[in-house]
Task: inverse folding
């Protein structure tokens, strides 16, 4: 049912598709040398295009084929890997990783508890030690959504393999940006 809803939203411009890269992403990559980056739930590829245009070996995954088709058009010849796939099955995908940077702007918070566990395991599998993981997620609260997550829930979901290094409240609706660093293996 969720796949159908998202597919229908891509017949028009989805409300979250601003057409500009996330300012948090822009700030986060400014001091970093380009490497490999993955956008989970990439939609029409706005952030994938930005990353590829700034020298990153960018990849994006979304479970809506129409979104990936729009992302391919948006890339306008920039090299990037775009896949139709399930973010809860990352370990089964042929991704061009491991990754130095992973971005998720609103995908994780819509998953089931089991899906979140599989996502976190796949994320750990595909990231290098020291990699930056940027997550934007809705939070519960006045005007929040039914799939909002508390800060504690998010941090606990990634406790095996990631350290929270920064946290910023989102603007407008109850939400937050989480900045995680992938731990060294065994640590």
Result:
């Amino acid at each position: 049912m969720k796949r159908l809803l998202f597919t229908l939203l891509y017949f028009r411009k989805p409300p979250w598709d601003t057409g500009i890269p996330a300012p948090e992403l822009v700030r986060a990559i400014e001091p970093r040398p380009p490497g490999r980056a993955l956008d989970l739930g990439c939609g029409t590829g706005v952030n994938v295009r930005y990353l590829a245009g700034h020298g990153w070996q960018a990849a994006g995954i979304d479970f809506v084929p129409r979104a990936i088709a729009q992302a391919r058009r948006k890339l306008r010849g920039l090299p990037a890997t775009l896949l139709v796939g399930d973010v809860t099955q990352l370990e089964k995908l042929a991704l061009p990783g491991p990754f130095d940077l992973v971005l998720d702007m609103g995908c994780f918070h819509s998953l089931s508890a089991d899906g979140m566990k599989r996502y976190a395991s796949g994320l750990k599998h595909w990231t290098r030690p020291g990699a930056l993981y940027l997550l934007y997620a809705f939070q519960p609260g006045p005007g929040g959504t039914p799939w909002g997550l508390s800060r504690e829930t998010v941090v606990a979901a990634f406790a095996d393999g990631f350290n929270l290094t920064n946290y910023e409240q989102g603007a407008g609706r109850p939400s937050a940006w989480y900045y995680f660093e992938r731990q060294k293996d065994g640590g």
About this structure: The radius of gyration is 15 Å. The mean pLDDT is 89. The chain has six helices and seven strands.
